[in-house]
Fold this protein.
Amino acid sequence: GPAGGTSAIYAARKGIRTGMIAERFGGQVIDTMDIENFTSVQKTLGPKFATDMEAHIREYDVDIMNLQRVSKITGADQTANGLVHLELENGATVESKTVILSTGARWRKMNVPGEDEYATRGVAYCPHCDGPLFKGKKVAVIGGGNSGVEAAIDLAGIVEHVTLIEFDTKLRADQVLQDKLNSLSNATVITHALSTEVVGDGSQVTGLKYKDRGTDTEHTLELSGIFVQIGLLPNT
């Protein structure tokens, strides 16, 4: 991702022999379509941003090992030659004086049918990045913590209507945020609900199915976007 790429550029500019191991070059940024908040670049696309970043890195003598995962790291104090030893899943090994971990995080997913299929086609994980794409449309936010409620508040200023879905019987966000959300005329909160399926027409999201955990009844919301805000998982 951008952190790893920047680290590689800084190291290479100092004349340090540098290698970059990436599971997929670009990281989370390639899952975002429109990027409009990167200062000095009025608008770009996530995949283009990643391509430009790679071109920048390749201006230096950086060995990019793409589509690779590290399976094991052995510290320098445990190796015969005093170098950090990395084993890759493909069987290759890399040795280095220093290893910089820039693995970031990944969005926690709902793990329901249709979520992966409609990722970037209505299912989104970054309201700041993708919210403007749903101007005047109906969307849902999954998650009633601070990030979910803040996302719903922000989206309410852009979209026609936002529905917040929370698994628990009550929201967990700070009360001041709940009060703000409840004051909005185009926001609805549904608690004690389990999201069960992302519905689409083959090209984009058209709805969300959820089950009322109190009555065990199923419902379908008609909407154009679903913002999943149930936390992050570290990649380290």
